[in-house]
Amino acid sequence: MKVLLLENIHPVAVEILEARGFDVELRAGSLSEDELVAALSPQDGPGVNLLGIRSNTHITPRVLDAATDLQAIGCFCIGTNQVDLAAATERGVAVFNAPFSNTRSVVELVIGEIIVLARRLAEKTEKMHAGVWDKSAKGSHEVRGRTLGIVGYGNIGTQLSNLAESMGLRVIFFDTADRLAHGNARRMRSLDDLLAEADVVSIHVDGRPGNAGMFGAEQFAKMKPRSLFINASRGMVVDDVALRENILSGHIAGAALDVFPVEPKAQGDAFESVLRGLDNVILTPHVGGSTQEAQEEIGYFVSGKFVGFALEGRTELSVNLPSVQAPQLHSGHRIGYLHHNVPGVLAGINGILADSGDNITAQYLSTRGEQGYVVTDTPDPLPDEALAKLAESEHTIWLRTWES
């Protein structure tokens, strides 16, 4: 099977996949839509079966239509909003991500930024490099006793909550979902309530379309005067122009951003932002999860999902297909059948198996929305005519087989 990994994915992913017999190509940068169409389309032989990306490669319906051999996409990061999930699901292409692997790295970056902003260290070091000795405590504060407001209390938000408390910060949070408060953190009933109380606001929401533009001029106006703002979630969440205006007016004392509405596609490309050149504003190139530890863990985790799916039909932790956690296939044969979720499909599968005289040793199934997925283990291979009958069903999305 052919694997294409883009955007400098950690070499451990290559090692794991090649050890299991995959043909792996690793590229440094992301690809445009036209480049993806050319790279993924079957040319003189089979096309790419597994595609690994990070945040700068965007998978559109046109790309998926061209990639006729594509079975799965691995997002070697937390987010999956760079993939048209509806289009991938419709075509039966599994999408995996790494929802936990870089959590600690992002949190450590945010903790560092809180201290750097509160002490105005970026300005201090810039002046020192310019030969200016500015030994002043003006605008410099401890973080102990300050209130951190976390918007989005998921994997990253909760770990940030724990570390911030250990440093002496008071923690409040707001999330639209029900979340258990960690430690002494307090849930706020509304975003407005959080903004009115927080000395530091840190955004940790996901990339769903409803979060686009959620933080703009209205929200900045409701923040406490001289508070700090951090965004290490998604660039499209924050109105950077409104943030610039609040920095220039002095209402916001400092900000740190690791994500931007438009980001360069490759190393060395020009970076443009209205936030460039502002005092006490930290700009980093989407490196929240870019530590060696996080990237190695992500490479290990997502490549493992690729192996489990491609070689054994397992879909656990897929973000779009029905989740089936079948055990490792030690003996016999396995059939993976993704189908439209309508009544009678499972009975039909088992009827075909019974008619062919094949016994079922184990069966695992799940449904998700308009799709169902069933994994069936048998001691003997299903006859070709039985497989053809299943494949030709009007309910079939795809049918795959494996043997131990």
UniProtKB/TrEMBL annotation:
Known EC number: 1.1.1.95
Domain D-isomer specific 2-hydroxyacid dehydrogenase catalytic: from-to ranges: 3-319
Key word Amino-acid biosynthesis present: yes
Enzyme class: oxidoreductase
Domain spans labelled D-isomer specific 2-hydroxyacid dehydrogenase NAD-binding: 113-288
Protein family membership: Belongs to the D-isomer specific 2-hydroxyacid dehydrogenase family.
Protein name per UniProt: Phosphoglycerate dehydrogenase
Gene (name only): serA
